[in-house]
Amino acid sequence: YAILHDLPFFHDMDVLRQHKFRVLTFHRDIPTRFGIIPRRGQGSEVRWFECQPCYILHVTNCWEEGDWVVMDGCRSLNPMPDTQPGEGELASMLAYMRLEANAYRWRFNLKTGEVREGDIDDLNTEFNKSNPLFHGVKSKYSYHQRIPLLHEGGHTLRFTGLVKYNNDTGVHSQWDYGAGVFGSEAVYAPKPGAGRHSGEDDGYVITLATDSNNWKSECLVFDATDIAAGPVCRVQMPHRVPYGFHATWARGEDLYGGR
Question: Domain span at residue 94?
């Protein structure tokens, strides 16, 4: 199946008509809808499920369990936090970048139309990644970036730690990057020879981190089985790498043809 997201976070058309500029508005009175359609199906086959109003940036994984389709991701109940005094002309952008989200699970019954949803945990995390070898099949582990809330000193979107979740139990482990050190989206790299026959966390989690105290950057490599133990390898980067959003992983043989 493919899962379509119809989220109540869109441009305010009244403002657009009157003032000719776009303003994103989160409509808390409109349910979030998910449309589930066979990947090789027709539009007429879509099944719509209504859920609590929310916004979603990133999905962790989806799979089937009997009559159920399960989706794990990070849910945001407040995608447009309030602006803060003293932030000047960048106040709206800084507010938007104060991302509030947590690990969440949705379950959709294709036979009865029932929806079940609930928190996996309430820790503020996002940029969730999982083992790509398990995409589309049942999995339980994911790797998130810890994002401090405003009252924790999180004035904008900066990643202060790496969090591993067991999404079945909600239990998590964490490694903090350190004072003034900020990470980027982590990627999962399966060990050579790893597959669905081996452990789901039989691999490495890799991120780039930059120390704002000296503006030096490192590539940090973690054993995916034990994030809390800290990096098993640190590689000093020859240049500063600005901390930021997205990353991906590819094997050397895929990039360079085995050379």
Answer: 2-256
Q: What global pTM score does this model have? A: 0.92
**Per-residue pLDDT at 231 exceeds 80:** yes
In this prediction, residue 258 carries a pLDDT of: 58
The 3 state secondary structure assigned to the chain is CEEEEECCEEECHHHHHHHCCCCEEECCCCCEEEEEECCCCCHHHCEEEEECCCEEEEEEEEEEECCEEEEEEEEECCCCCCCCCCCHHHHHHHHHHCCCCEEEEEEEECCCCCEEEEECCCCCEEEEECCHHHCCCCCCEEEEEECCCHHHCCCCCCECEEEEEECCCCCEEEEECCCCEEECCCEEEECCCCCCCCCCCCEEEEEEEEECCCCEEEEEEEECCCHHHCCCEEEECCCCCCCCCCCCCCCHHHHHCCC
Residue 259: what pLDDT?
Answer: 59
